[in-house]
Amino acid sequence: MATDFDNAAGAGLDAKQALARLDALEAALQAETAAAAGTADPVALDQTRQGRLSRMDALQQQQMALEAQRRRQLQLARIGGARRRLARGEWGLCTQCAEAIDPRRMQVDPTASRCLECSD
Ligand SMILES: [Zn+2]
């Protein structure tokens, strides 16, 4: 991570670097998804295996797992969008006003699709 900022005087990412960042982000998300496999499954109704309190804990944990799963899916969709913009040569341009997005912003979040003014 830190090496990104050590590059050429804070210049923006080029397409190759952007793709590498997207690949890394996606790989991390897939690893998280694999590690979380099963955690968002419905909680078993069988209370002989877990007491009342632990069932509530399990439900709460399932909710958190579902939330994390939604967040990962959203992020994967954002990565997919960034890949399509890269392929079309539109990566780094705001999808709303077509102005160039601040390269520092793209470096922090290579999936950013809008400039600062357009992102609410
Ligand atoms: Zn804009």
Would you write up a description of this structure?
The protein has 120 residues and is mostly helical. The chain has one domain (12-108). It has helices spanning 2-6, 15-35, 52-87, 103-108. The longest helix has 36 residues, at 52-87. The protein is elongated, with a radius of gyration of 19 Å. It binds zinc ion (ZN). Residues 94, 96-97, 99, 114-115, 117-118 line the site of zinc ion (ZN). Residues 94, 96-97, 99, 114-115, 117-118 line the site of zinc ion.
Helix content range: 55-70%
Number of domains: 1
Mean pLDDT, all residues: 87
Name the beta content range: under 5%
Secondary-structure element series? HHHH
Cα radius of gyration in angstroms? 19 Å
Write down how many β-strands occur, each being a DSSP E stretch of 2 or more residues: 0
How would a textbook summarize the main sheet?
none
Shape: elongated
Summarize the structure.
With 120 residues, the chain is mainly α.
